[in-house]
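Lecture 7 notes: from sequence to structure.

We start with a single chain of 392 residues. Read the sequence below before looking at the structure.
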Amino acid sequence: RGSTPPSAHTHNNMSRKSQAVSSCSGKSRPSLILMRIALTALLSPLVAAAAVVTSPVGARALGSLTISEAGLGTLNLALDKKENDEAAAGALQASVAAGCNFVDTAEAYGFGNSERLTAWAAARAGIKIGCGPGELHVATKFAPVPWRPNAESVVEACRASAERLGVEQIPLYQIHFPDLIQPLKAFGLERRKDEEYWEGLARCYEMGLAANVGVCNYGPTYVARVHAFLAARGIPLASNQINYSLMYRKSVEATLAKCAELSVPVISYFPLANGLLSGRYDADNLPKFPKSLTMKKYVVGGADGFPDGGYTPLLRELQRIAAARGMSVPQVSINYVVSKGAIPIPGARNAEMAAANMGAMGWRLSEAEVGALEAAADAIGFEFSSGGFRLE
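Now the structure, written as tokens:
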């Protein structure tokens, strides 16, 4: 890998050994998950120090990692706490008990608090963050902000994230979005530092600070560019994390196709479309203020060009398939993403929600069911996006 120092090679060789983790192919129903959670809670005082994910459900490759087919997103956890949040600990413990070994966070979530809380919750659950079999594979991100000027600043950010997570090597380190924040652009002054940030990712990998590197919110053009940039250094692009769900698929078709062409796994944030695909919202049950200000048009329609009834026809199809399968609406929505080959990372506020979400693992919608859902989504005539990123 170019001019990598010998010490870095030694570190890399030790940390990037093949990690074979057995697959769990059984169907993961909510009742079984809750039984596992109860048993884990009962035994945790005795075995907390040795807790492991022995069989990540639907084990699949993500760079050098072997991860469960769904992960836990941390954006819904408290962003003002660094520790002592039992809801966060419960959500993580429930996810692990369900066979999940993948968690996604970011330095931008609570200005580093989310990383600290993730580390605390993992310790509370008695599971080690790391890259090895049985360990919790945590992904985090750095933000390409204007005051982060060069590749070395990415290395510094990586070291800071590793310290907050309590690890020497981050399992997956990602750039949060392209270098879009250009405060002087209105004055004709713009300097994109994307390649400098990619250089920073490459150095983190070569120095052994990151076991794998990935990107977020990259469209087809930028995925191809960063893939080529890293490949020239012998570094694989482990993933591209994008807004992807049953209600946001048309707009990302080109990105999905490019990722498939380059064999880059896709991680899906907002697999529940910010709660729309959870089945919780209808005309009589709107989101609480201020979320209702932006969500009402999707739920009931009749304004801003949205049809009367909003997404109701799609919700009814989700409810029909969920009832026929004995699953919940969110489980069907999350499994749609799994069935399309991506890795969903739904958020969860507590253990109950996490357990329910992880019930989306271990089974697949049929082709007919996927087709019916996509037809219903197309029929409502609009998509949902609150990511704020235009994929380039």
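Strands lie at 60-62, 65-67, 72-73, 102-104, 137-142, 172-175, 213-216, 237-243, 266-269, 343-344. Keep this in mind for problem set 3.
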